[in-house]
Specification:
The protein is α/β, with parallel strands linked by helices and 304 residues long. The protein has three domains: 82 residues, Arc Repressor Mutant, subunit A (Orthogonal Bundle); 101 residues, 3-Layer(aba) Sandwich (D-Maltodextrin-Binding Protein, domain 2), CATH 3.40.190.10; 96 residues, 3-Layer(aba) Sandwich (D-Maltodextrin-Binding Protein, domain 2). 41% of the residues lie in helices and 20% in strands. The strands form four sheets. A five-stranded mixed β-sheet has the order 4-3-5-12-6, with helices on both faces. It has a three-stranded antiparallel β-sheet with strand order 10-7-11, covered by helices on one side. Helix 1 crosses helix 4 and helix 2 crosses helix 3. The termini are far apart.
Length: 304
């Protein structure tokens, strides 16, 4: 007689919720179950496998190494089953239930969200899952099927990947320095600025690429051997705040900092060479989802 596998989709969802929320009680709220039911599901699996899955650390329930292994592999299973369900719905209707989008951090988000609002007004049953990407991170996410659509991704477009990429205009990135920065008085003096530029700390947004070679864009890295170190942040909002605080300099989208240029908190640097990048929307040619087609049509017709 074949022994039934005790690791079910339901128990994997339970382990995932406990790990993310940090307690059985909070996991039960998310799962809409009684705390006793969540506790029983874990206890039953521990008994069937004859291992401990969680251990107490203060008020938190923390996975044991064995529990961590089950959850890490289990999350891959949960993701696969979610993709299977979505694929089945897409095959049946031609309309995918969810579109995952990577939005480049330098994008004019107000225009983009306006397009999304129009799309959802007409297709309210499509769920949107939005994440921020930087430089190569978007291309990698599309290649690995972690997203279906890139918006505002910079070139160059990777070749022989089966991507369709449509240009939506160039970047409007402004090199800026804060008024409180000790070198702000040289912002308009291109010759003096060229001399002190190697001394100025660069604020750099992390490339979200996980496996490919990451890159930076804009003012570039602090020179090797320089006493000044680069300052890395996770997103564009952090980059803007770091520059305003006087920590360093960097390129930021004009529409995000125009108010700071107007009130004098930031000053545009007069540089001889300002880098410009062409931006794209991109998706896989093999993706025939009706929702993706409708959304890309709206994005292509928008006035970027």
């Amino acid at each position: 007689m074949t022994t039934r596998n005790p690791i079910t989709i339901e128990v994997l969802e339970t382990l995932d919720a406990i790990d993310r929320r940090g307690s059985y009680a909070k996991a039960s709220e998310e799962l809409n179950k009684a705390t006793s039911a969540v506790s029983y599901a874990v206890q039953k699996l521990e008994e069937q496998l004859d291992i401990a899955l969680f251990q107490r650390q203060g008020r938190r329930s923390v996975l044991t190494p064995a529990g961590q292994l089950i959850l890490e592999e289990g999350r891959n299973i949960l993701l696969a089953t979610s993709r299977l369900a979505n694929s089945a719905k897409e095959v049946a209707t031609g309309w995918e239930p969810k579109i995952r989008i990577a939005m480049e951090s330098t994008l004019d988000s107000s225009l983009f969200f306006g397009v999304l609002a129009d799309f959802l007004a007409a297709h309210g049953n499509v769920e949107i899952d939005l994440q921020e990407s930087v430089l190569n991170g978007g291309w990698e996410a599309l290649d690995q099927d972690r997203v279906e659509l890139l918006v505002g991704v910079p070139g160059p477009v990777p070749l022989q990947k089966g991507f369709r990429a449509v240009p939506i205009g160039g970047s409007d990135l402004v090199p800026v320095i804060a008024a409180c920065n000790q070198y702000s008085g040289l912002a308009k003096d291109s010759e003096a600025l060229a001399e002190i530029l190697p001394k100025l700390r660069r604020i750099i947004t992390h490339d979200t690429s996980l496996h490919e070679i990451s890159r930076s864009a804009g003012l570039g890295m602090a020179e090797q051997g320089s006493a000044v170190q680069n300052f890395y942040v996770q997103n564009m909002d952090q980059k803007v705040e770091a520059i305003i605080a006087g920590i360093g300099i960097g390129h930021v989208p004009r529409q995000r900092i125009q108010c700071y240029l107007d009130n004098g908190k930031l000053t545009e640097l007069k540089l001889a060479n300002v880098s410009n990048h062409e931006y794209f929307i991109a998706w896989k040619i093999s993706n025939k989802g009706k929702g993706l087609q409708a959304l890309t049509q709206l994005l292509m017709s928008a006035k970027w």
